[in-house]
Amino acid sequence: MDIKILLRDLGNLLYGGQMLTGGYAVFWFVTCLLITQVVMAGLTTLIKQIPLQIAVILVLYILAHVETSFFPNANIPWNADVAFLAMTYYAAGYYVRPILQKLFQYRIVFLCALMLPAILITGDLLHLFQYKLDMKVLEYTNWFLDLFIPLAMTLSFLTISYWIVRLKTVAKILSYIGLMSLTIMYMHFPINLVFEELTGEQTVIQYLLLGVIIPVFLHLVISRITLAKILFLGSLYKAKAA
Length: 242
Hints:
Protein name: Acyltransferase 3 domain-containing protein
Transmembrane segments: 20-43, 50-66, 78-96, 108-131, 143-164, 176-195, 207-232
Number of domains: 2
Radius of gyration: 20 Å
Organism: Paenibacillus thailandensis
Order of helices and strands: HHHHHEEHHHHH
Keywords: Membrane, Transmembrane, Transmembrane helix
């Protein structure tokens, strides 16, 4: 490989912004999550009053939409500005987590969790409303829906997941695959990118299957090679499913 290309790609990876594209695209999530966690930790440490914390998060949410409206081509290192919006979703989980476990136990909540995504997806397919959210490229299209839909869908997925894991066999399988979640996250995109370049095709089913099956297989192979496990999984020990 040309040394200039290698140095350019390395610089792009370190710099971030719009350059976290192609095979590097998955890294924008990692840097954004890190910055979001650091900001949230600083916020809750420096400001003890929860109402004031929420007020700061609301300001960041507004700034996120101001940026995407007036500076849609902003190129901030590590996609750090995406944390303005990510803070809202992260904080929502932080504040409501204590009551979620109790909330999930009600069957009416489970029924709503099934109905709500169905209603939203049907409405989108029937063009009753148009909605798109792409945090990586600062595409926030609706001030209200950017808050309601992600939080509603997340609550639905969490509720459905709560009931799914009550099935012991399913829970065991999902827990086992869950141990490989980082491998799946880092590898699903480049694997599908290579497949699309080779075949010129990409479907949702293919994306999901290739993005899970191949990383799981590679994880199993890597976990059985000591040096590879140290280099790529960062551990000498085998994790156990809960």
